[in-house]
Write a structure and sequence with these properties.
7 helices
């Protein structure tokens, strides 16, 4: 049971990395220092003072850059691989009750996979927002991502099962939205196709 709960916690934190790479790490550092989160010995550095300072600065830079039009899309591009790494670290840092090998495999497959899945969803949403508004609504998207990253990181520590369900709903909404856009594009392409009438 300890392994299952710690794995759910790790997946929730890793998925939060898909919204913001450093926010979950900052939340983990704060909760660890407060004694509300137990980290594996190999990742104890996350709760250190230097790590707290680094994660705080990185979070501020990441959030600030995300409010600059077009820069936010560039950050999304480089955030994909970094989100995967952060997802692996966050899951690996909290999984307990199994061998290091099993914990590592879970961190790579489930932690990294959860981070990439959410990150891919945010890229789709931001791409559509940029294309349809010229970047005007991107600050609102960024704000919602900041809130989601913070709230889900905190909630993952308090209610890991609930957060996992919320991320499943998020994935479903993104998939539905993507399918809708694909169908609309296909319909527009069909309507725009001119068929020359046959001459009797």
């Amino acid at each position: 049971m300890e392994f299952v709960m710690s794995l759910l916690l790790g997946i929730g934190l890793s998925a939060s990395c898909g919204f913001r790479v450093f926010v979950p790490l900052l939340v983990m550092s704060i909760f660890s220092r407060a004694g509300h989160l137990t980290l594996n010995e190999s990742f104890a550095f996350i709760g250190s003072t230097p790590a707290l300072v680094v994660f705080s600065i990185a979070t501020v830079v990441e959030i600030a850059g995300d409010y600059i039009p077009w820069v936010d899309n560039f950050l999304d591009t480089i955030a994909t691989p970094t989100a995967f790494v952060a997802g692996v670290i966050t899951t690996g840092a909290v999984v307990h009750g199994v061998s290091p090998l099993v914990a590592g495999v879970c961190a790579i497959i489930l932690g990294g996979g959860a981070a990439i899945a959410v990150q891919s969803g945010t890229v789709v949403i931001r791409g559509v927002a940029t294309a349809t508004s010229g970047g005007i609504v991107n600050p609102a998207v960024s704000t919602s991502e900041n809130f989601a990253a913070t709230a889900c990181s905190v909630a993952s520590i308090a209610l890991p099962i609930l957060v996992l369900g919320l991320f499943a709903m998020f994935a479903g909404v993104v998939f539905w939205y993507w399918r809708r856009k694909v169908k609309q594009a296909a319909g527009a392409s069909t309507e725009g196709h001119f068929v020359e009438p046959a001459i009797p």
